[in-house]
Amino acid sequence: MLIVDYGIGNLGSIMNMLRRIGIEAKISSDPAEIRAADRLIFPGMGSFDKAMTNLNKTGLRPALEESVLDRKIPILGICLGMQLLCKGSEEGKLPGLGWVEATVKRFNFPPDSPLRIPHIGWNDVHITRDSPLLAGLTSRDRFYFAHSYHVADIAEEYVIGKTNYGYDFASIIHQGNIMAIQCHPERSFAGGARLLSNFSKV
User: Fold this and answer.
1) Averaged in consecutive runs of 10 residues, what is the pLDDT profile of the chain (202 residues)?
2) Residue 186 is among the residues annotated as catalytic for this protein
3) Catalytic: 86?
4) Is the peptide bond preceding residue 118 cis, with omega within 30 degrees of 0?
5) Is 184 a catalytic residue?
6) What is the CATH classification number for the domain harbouring 82?
């Protein structure tokens, strides 16, 4: 398993979680190693446009597209990594990777709403469809979130988990070999460990 390093993201925390659960992994920004990996984790923290700029400048995008789109290597997008898989985001002006037919929108609440943006803290994920990514997990498991934007306008058939923060949004998706989660599994203790373990077997 390889954690993609494109200059943005909490790579060390993800590596530490994988080590704790006995999964062999490496962090790399080498296109050759990306092409050779049997599974990819695509993390991200920060702004949409900066992340896309980094991806395009580093030359990693062709290697990722060859692995994910052509060879169908499983990939797990995490947080901003999930959003980058979509067509674009209200946060920025650059187009996303466009591997998932969806957009990314900012939370939108009435002025008198008590809910704050960003959405930070523990929340439930309501499982909506069966997926090997969620084996052994239930809607009672809780996950840690930290985000102001979320995936929207996605076909329901690809949504396997939803979370409510003011309204329901897609928090886990599974589209063929492309999987993604809005929460941080590396900070979600047992639930996150189970999800990452499941991904290593997909």
Assistant:
1) 91 95 96 97 93 92 97 98 98 97 97 96 96 95 97 98 98 98 95 97 94
2) yes
3) no
4) yes
5) yes
6) 3.40.50.880
